[in-house]
Amino acid sequence: MALSDEQYRELTDVRVHEPARIAAALAARRRRTSVTADGMMFLVAADHTARGMIGLRDDPLAMADRRSMLDRLLVALEHPRVDGVLASAEIMEDLVLLGALDDRIAIGTMNRGGLAGATWTLDDRFTAYDAARVHAANLDGGKMLLRIDDADAASAPTIEACAHAVQELSDRRLLAMVEPIPYTRDAQGNAVWDHDPLKLVRAVAVSGALSATSAYNWLKIQATDDIATVARVTSQPLLLLGGAPGPDPKATFALWEQGLAQPTVHGLVIGRTLLYPADGDVAGAVATAAALVEQAAKGKR
Hints:
The protein is α/β, with parallel strands linked by helices. The chain contains eleven helices and nine strands. The protein has helices at 5-17, 20-28, 66-77, 89-97, 131-136, 155-171, 197-208, 227-231, 249-260, 272-275, 282-300; strands at residues 41-46, 84-87, 105-109, 141-148, 175-185, 191-193, 217-222, 238-241, 265-270. The chain has an eight-stranded parallel beta barrel, surrounded by six helices. β1, α3 and β2 (84-87) form a beta-alpha-beta unit. The chain is globular and about 50 Å long. The model has no long low-confidence stretch (mean pLDDT 95).
C-alpha cells in the first residue's frame, strides 16, 4: 500500500484544522484481546528518528523522509504475521490516522532523550511517552532503552527511571518492554555497544529485576552468537532486536533463526533491517523474517 498525495497531505491538515481527531482515532482503535495469537510476537520498530538517528549506511538522510518511512511501515504491516509496531508518538499518530493500527499491537517508545552521538547519550531521559500517556493513548505497552556503562554515571538515573516506568506500566497491566544494551567507550571516547556476551548477560539480569514486579515484562535483546547463554538468564519472554543492518543479510537472518529456537525467545522487534534493506525489497525482508517467526511458533507448540 503506497500513500497517495491526498492521504499524506491529510496527515498535516488534521494537525492544522482538527488536532482532536488524533486522540479520537486512538481511543477508537480496535485492540486485540491478547498480545500474541500463538505465543510469538513480531513487531516493526520505528522509533529511531526520535533519538536523532536519521542516517543509515552511507546516506545521512536515509530515514529523514517521513512519507517514505510510512510507505515502508504500511508494506510491513500488510503482512499477516506482523503483529504491530513500536513507535514514537508522531509516527503512531500518523499510522492511526491512516487506519493501520486496528487489531495490531501498538507499543509506544518512552525514553528518547539520549540522542545518538550526544555527549550525554547514556543519560536517556523520558522525553516521549510515559506510562499514563501510553494508557491514555489506548496503546498496548511502552518500551524503554536501558544502556549500561559502568564507567558512565549517566547510566544510574536511566536505570532508576526505567524501574519506575516498568512499575507504572505494570500497575496498569500494560506490557513493559525493556531493551538492555551494555555500552563502553571506543578509542575516540564515543559511547558504543559493548559486544562482550558476559556484559549482555549481566544487563539482561539487571533489566529483568527492575521494579517490584516482572509480570508484564518483555525484554528486547541483541541476537548474539551465544544467545543460548543470554536466554537462560531469565524466565521472562525475550524478543530479538535487529540493530543496524549488517553487510550480510543472510548471516543476520541465521542469527535470528538460532535465537528464535531458544525456549524463552518469543519473537522479533526489527526496524531498519526490514524497513531499509540494502536491496530495497521491504516486503521480501519482512516475509523472510515472518517465515522465521512462523517456524519458531510451530516448534514451540
